[in-house]
Amino acid sequence: MPADRPLIYRTCQWIARTGWSRLAGLDVRGLENVPKKGAFLLIANHESNLDPILIQAVCPRAVHAMAKSSQFLVPVVGALVRSILAFPVRRYQVDPHAVRIALRRLGANQGVAVYIEGERSWDGRLQSARPGTVRLALKAGVPVLPCGISGSYEAWPRWSSKPQLLPIRITFGVPINLPRLDSRREREPAVAEATATIMGALERLSVAGTVGEAAPAS
């Protein structure tokens, strides 16, 4: 059994992956692009609440996801999200504590997931990047794994109270190797180019989903 994934994590993976695949349809591509070992920073677009559930469900490596801090205050829900390796981040503001946690877990050769738009899309289109995510990527200097998800907005837009059973596609792209820039003076000039590279990859993956071969999701 994978030592990096607790039993509850693997159980939730199986339930989400098998359930959505059989009831609605789940097309997973590019699994060969997920690093087999070592740290990586998974950066994805964010169409709905289904995204972190399904992306973690199909990723063969454990993913420690940044999740909005309000979830951790809800009884039962807070305990569950912690048990599946998530950690809190305060949205719409700089959160040094969340950055330190992310860097610690990357330093322990784990995978960390961040949704670069900072919130769910309002219209299904890719929103602007939050520069803090790009700064984290440049500070960490680990492979950036772009992940595009499409169809989840149609299945569960943010203004809907419940999801619909519609097919969803998840595509893992080729890892992006960014330089490790420890000082702010080095990082800031590199943010714009790194942002364009990451967002360009997400745009291609979330719209076209052309990377890799289809893989069974069950």
Give an account of the 3D structure.
This protein has 218 residues and is of the alpha/beta class. It has a single domain, classed as Glycerol-3-phosphate (1)-acyltransferase, CATH 3.40.1130.10. The protein has seven helices and eight strands. It has an eight-stranded mixed β-sheet, with helices on both faces. Strand 3, helix 3 and strand 4 form a beta-alpha-beta unit. The radius of gyration is 16 Å and the shape is globular. The protein starts with 6 loop residues before the first helix and ends with a strand. The C terminus is likely disordered.
Task: List the main descriptive attributes of the protein structure presented here.
8 strands, 38% helix, globular, 218 residues, alpha/beta, Glycerol-3-phosphate (1)-acyltransferase, disordered C terminus
Summarize the structure.
The chain is of the alpha/beta class and 218 residues long.
Write the layout of secondary structure elements.
Blueprint (H helix, E strand, L loop, with lengths): L6 H17 L2 E4 L10 E5 L5 H9 L4 E6 L8 H7 L3 E3 L6 H12 L3 E5 L15 H10 L3 E7 L1 H4 L12 E5 L11 H24 L6 E2 L3
Parallel strand pairs: 1-7, 2-5, 2-6, 3-4, 3-5
Antiparallel strand pairs: 1-8, 6-7
